[in-house]
């Protein structure tokens, strides 16, 4: 089965959050002009499932307002499930339009990185605690701690607190995401 979703990602800078004047959508370099809505396609495919273990592959292709500046990101994730807890670790590859020119892992493998996360189900199929980590020194290299609420079978709202890996390329902020499943 292929899972797909369309999401809208917005970020509120910690410096401006009390005024909510500046909102950034999708990836953006610190101190540059906001990038406003991109249209994107997300796909995820489960490759293997053995008891509590799953292997997934997926990707995201975004089309910003300038179609020549497409952005992409692909990944392979390992997921281990134990009752209400899902632990995820994987590797990713993304182009510079998606992540920027900074390293995702090392200077020799700057387009590759590591990602980790967890999801803890508080109320069955309704309310979740979540955390995501993306390695590197890009504007998207952050630790995000938050939660998600599933309004309907096809509508999920997520929010979280963003802590940057590198304060030169990102900043503390709030994340809001609405996902159509």
What would your notes on this structure say?
The two termini are 13 Å apart. A 10-stranded antiparallel barrel has the order 1-3-4-5-6-7-8-9-10-11. A hairpin with a 2-residue loop joins strand 3 (39-50) and strand 4. 2% of the residues lie in helices and 60% in strands. By secondary structure, it is mostly beta strands. Mean pLDDT is 77; it is low at 1-36. The chain is globular and about 40 Å long. It has one helix at residues 96-99, and strands at residues 2-13, 23-25, 39-50, 53-63, 71-82, 85-94, 112-123, 127-134, 142-152, 155-164, 173-180.
| Secondary-structure-derived class | mainly beta
Shape: globular
Average pLDDT number: 77
- Main sheet makeup: 10 strands, antiparallel, barrel
Strand segment count = 11
Rg from Cα: 16 Å
Percent helix range: under 10%
Low-confidence runs: 1-36
Binned strand content: over 45%
Discrete helix count: 1
Strand arrangement within the widest β-sheet reads 1-3-4-5-6-7-8-9-10-11
Quote the distance from N terminus to C terminus: 13 Å
Q: What string, H for helix and E for strand, traces the elements in order?
A: EEEEEEHEEEEE
């Amino acid at each position: 089965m292929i899972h797909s979703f369309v999401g809208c990602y917005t970020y509120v800078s910690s410096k401006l959050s009390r005024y909510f004047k500046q909102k950034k959508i999708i990836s953006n370099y610190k101190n540059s002009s906001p990038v406003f809505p991109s249209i994107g396609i997300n796909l995820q495919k489960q490759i293997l499932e053995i008891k509590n273990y799953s292997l997934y592959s997926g990707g995201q292709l975004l089309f910003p307002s300038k179609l020549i500046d497409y952005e992409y990101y692909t990944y392979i994730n390992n997921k281990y499930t134990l009752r209400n807890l899902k632990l995820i670790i994987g590797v990713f590859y993304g182009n510079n339009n998606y992540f920027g020119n900074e390293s995702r892992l090392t200077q020799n493998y700057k387009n590759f990185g590591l990602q980790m996360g967890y999801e803890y189900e508080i109320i069955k199929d309704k309310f979740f605690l979540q955390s995501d980590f993306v390695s590197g020194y890009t504007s998207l290299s952050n630790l995000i701690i938050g939660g998600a609420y599933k309004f309907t079978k096809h509508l999920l709202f997520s929010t979280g607190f963003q802590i940057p890996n590198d304060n030169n390329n990102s900043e503390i902020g709030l994340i809001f995401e609405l996902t159509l499943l």
